[in-house]
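Comment thread on ticket #2218

A.B. wrote:
> Attaching the input chain for the structure job we discussed in standup.
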Amino acid sequence: MDYIAANVAYRYCTPDREKEIDMNELPFLIATAAIDSIEFYYPISVEIDCSLSGYVSYVGKSSMEVHIDVLQKTGSTERLACSANFVMVARNKATGKAFPVPPINFNG
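C.D. wrote:
> Ran it. Output below, let me know if you need it in another format.
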């Protein structure tokens, strides 16, 4: 779940024109600052694949909250088995200081 949260945060902070460049070339790093909550709604079977999805739900100056959902098939439907909120921070690679993240755009 942490890997997916980091991936969502990197994609959010990377301008569209730079989405195809190597992550090592980006001027910032993303780190997990906290796992705010993990809620299990149903037991997760180790024998059935899960699908994970995530989105940025809050943005500060250099931090963001990423919400992750874990879904698992039960019969012909998928149900929400678990969800979590991760607080991710962006840091400047060169200085280690806070790296500003873009604000949430609710218009598109």
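A.B. wrote:
> Thanks. Noting for the ticket: The two ends are 26 Å apart (CA to CA).
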